[in-house]
Structure formats: C-alpha cells, structure tokens
Amino acid sequence: MSAILNTVHNNYLAAYAPSSITRYDTHKKSELRAVYNSIVKINKDSPWYLPVKRLDVQQFAIGLKEGARDLHNTIASLGGLEEADLLSKKTAFSSDEDIASATYVGTYVPGEENPSITLEVQELAVSQENMGNFLPTGKVGLSPDTYSFDVSVNDMNYEFQFTLGDNETNRELQERLARLINNSGIGLKARVEDTTGRSSLVLESEATGLAPGKTELFRISDEHTSKAKGAVNYLGIDYVSRPASNARFTIDGEPCSTASNTFTYEKRYDISLKGASPEGHPVTIGLKTNVESLSDNVVQLAEGYNRFLKGASNYMDTQPRSKHVVREMNKIIALYQDSLKAIGVNSQEDGTLEVDRSKLSSAVVSSEDVTDTFHTLKDFSNLLLRKSSQISLNPMQYVDQTIVAYKNPGHNFINPYMSSAYSGMLFNGYC
Questions:
Q1: What pLDDT does residue 427 have?
Q2: Are strands 218-221 and 135-136 parallel, antiparallel or unpaired?
Q3: Using CB atoms within 10 A as the burial measure, which of 130, 153, 214, 402 is most buried?
Q4: Lowest mean pLDDT among 61-70, 80-89, 267-276
Q5: Using an 8 Å Cβ cutoff, are 40 and 418 in contact?
Q6: Beta-carbon count within 10 A of 268 CB
Q7: By C-alpha distance, which of 105, 96, 23, 78 is closest to 299?
Q8: Average pLDDT for residues 313-334, to the nearest whole number?
Q9: What 3-state class would DSSP assign to 340?
Q10: Smallest Cα–Cα separation from 18: which of 80, 81, 69, 56?
Q11: Is the pTM here over 0.85, yes or no?
C-alpha cells in the first residue's frame, strides 16, 4: 500500500504541484479547523452531484486548486497574510548577479540594522560524474542475456535490469539505459556523448558536494547483482571521471563551505552561487531601498496573477465553466483598473497585468504618503488573497457537474467532503 501511495504522491508533485514550497503551506491547528468549518458551511446547503469521472475534468479541478494555492502563497510571501503587511516585504540586491543572487527571507523590523555582506566565491559545488567507455558503433560485445547492475544513491540501493538482444548496437544500448535511468527518479541524470564515431554513457548526480565522512554520491557495481554480470565493466560506468566537491567562498573575509550552491545565511538571505569571483572583486549583498522593494513586490504580484489567469485560460476550450474563473478575475481588475493604471500597473487585452517600473517608482517618490497612495494596491492584493482562498477551498464550483437532487432546506445534514472531491481523484487510478 505504501508503494501505491508513493506513486500517487510523486505523480501529484510532478503533474500538479508548484515548483516551490513555502512556509505558507504549513498550518496551525486553528487554521486547519477554520478550513474544515468553511467546508462544512459550504456543503450544508449544496445540492448532490453525480461523481466526476472524466480525467480531463479531474485534471482541471486539481490544476485550478493548485493554481489558486500558488497565487495565495505568492501574495502571502510579499509581506504576510495580514492586510497591513501586504506588499511590505523587503528585497535583496546583489552587485553581480552573474556571481551570486540573493533573496531576503528575514523579518524586516523598521529601524533595525540589516548590514550588507561581502561575498567572494572561490569554487562552486559540483556534482559527481561517471563517464563510461567510448564504444564504437556496431554490435554490442556482450552475449545476449538478461543483465543487471546495482546503483547506490544516498544510502539507497537500486537494481536495474535489461535484456540484450542479438543485433542491438552499442549506441542503442546506451540510449536505452539513459532513458531507463532518467525515468527512474533516483537522483541521477544520464546522457550519451559522441566523439569521433564513438559514444559513451555518462551518469551525473543531481546533488552536489559531499557530506562529512562521504567520498562519493553514488556507486555502480554488478558484483552482487541478481542477473548476468559484465555490463558495468563493458560500459565502464563505474569510473568516476569527476568527483563531487563542495562550494568554497568567504563572507566578510571568513572562509565558508557548503555542499550546495544555494544556502541560507543567518536566516536573512537565501544566496545562490553562480560563478567564481574575479580575484579581489567580492560581491556585495544587501537590502534594496523601499522604492525598489515595493516595485519588486508589485512585479511579483503581477507575475503571480498572470500565472493563475493563464493557467485558468488554458482550459477555456475544454471546460465551459473555466470562463467563470476568468470572468471573476477580470471583474476584480476592472474594479481597480483606473487606480492601478495611475501608478503604472496596466491591464492588457488578454487580461494579464504589466508593470511600468519607471512610472511606479515615480509615483512612489512623488507621493507624500506612500501608505495612503498605495492603499489601492493593498486592497487589490487583499481581494485577490480572498478569491484565491475561495477557489482553493472549493474548486469543484467551477466544474460542469450534473445535479442529482437539492437538499431539503432546514432539514439537511452536513456532508463536509463534497467540495473536496478533487482529493479522491488522485487515488481513482490506484484503488
């Protein structure tokens, strides 16, 4: 059963979930209780519907919910969930984005000192690479049989099996094994490299660096495998052509090392290393001005809104009720259109938003009271926050469903799971 649940979960993450997880994806008991009570309230008077069985409808409901959750988290990450904190997030700058980029993840307190730091990168963290033998084009030099080899990654062992045919070529075998490894999802990437009429199977770890006490990220062997041996030695994929190593850098002159090129510094900055620094030219990382931070927040808000709108619009040809989502979002834009346009946030013909940074910055600088001038932005953000929560709570309201019966007013009973039918959709193919 656990294997089935893992498969469902992995499919969900790959197909529907956003690429990033934020701290707003965790909840306190009181917040979960509030969600439950909201579901109970929604379903108390809702009619009965036929179960939704079409796969495209199920995908639409799940995609709509995850899109709304992404929009909700985007807005929340720009300052918090309280209306007074919306768009108040400070943003970081890097004096050389080609060497290192930074994101401010701390909690900004007005008047509190947030000094900038100097960063000098000596080496980036690199992954482990195993380069196989460069084999000529032509028939494989192994006897037809069923072969297998073991791969050890992160203290986990995996066995790969393949059957070798009579007339298979070296290139065909290498490409087949590359696909097998890439589709396995065990933390390795495989590719086939060509040179002067020969080809090699190359394996590379997705992770970089080495933990203390470790000398390698993965190991390949067929010494104790269950099928025929010989494939590893023939292909040469046990040869480590590039060992993994950690990133080396200094912060304010202090030497540091990490296994990854992305790390968090003193709970203030998420830093991504991208290249080595020229000698004597460190990178400066610090906080942007209030005007620049506000502009960045508005741009991120517009990008989050555009992602959600485009995601919902993609279903308009196949899901009739998706038009209701787009129409509701357009009404929100229309309500604030003139005020937003005055500060450089423009609505396009397709309903998306475009930010004129120059006009936005000028409006901030020329304003005597930034809080008063930009109350429209906060009101707009707050309304989007409430709408995204509503959609996330009950995406089934935008699905074209068949009503079976209406409940008897005043004598109905609570069915708290009707609006959450999309959760069962994840398991339909497995149970």
A1: 46
A2: unpaired
A3: 130
A4: 80-89
A5: no
A6: 21
A7: 78
A8: 90
A9: helix
A10: 69
A11: no
